[in-house]
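Appendix C reproduces, verbatim, an entry submitted by the partner laboratory led by Prof. M.T., so that reviewers can inspect both the input and the predicted structure.
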Amino acid sequence: MKILVIHGPNLNMLGKRDKSIYGERTLDEINALLKKEGKALNVEVMTFQSNHEGALIDFIQEQADSAQGIIINPGALTHYGFSLLDALADSKLPVIEVHLSNVYRREEWRARSVIAPVAEGQISGLGWRGYITALQVLASKLKAKPSR
């Protein structure tokens, strides 16, 4: 089983970016933790980050046929990434949306997600642990799903 973990714009700056909001861990550290948890769950974790919406879409389109699910932190594309929304919907894969900070305790515009309608769930405010939680939940759901 393969799960795609997609990180949107500015997430490459984790560990340098406002640590009081986004935490101390770097993206490389988070990806390493995800791969370690994936190994424990017997799940292949494939990570990807880009600051460009088109690159995220290309990645989804290239990888969707060989994956069983997607975890995505769309960053600022959460609020206006309609072409990203379409790519996620077209993948027909289960999606979990993750945000490091609690978007509902920040500026009002951050609480609106155009991605949410295609997501099975959303995890917000748990920092890097939100990714691990998303991986555990998605892997569990996929393993429990009857095969066709």
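The radius of gyration is 14 Å. Additional entries are available on request from the coordinating office.
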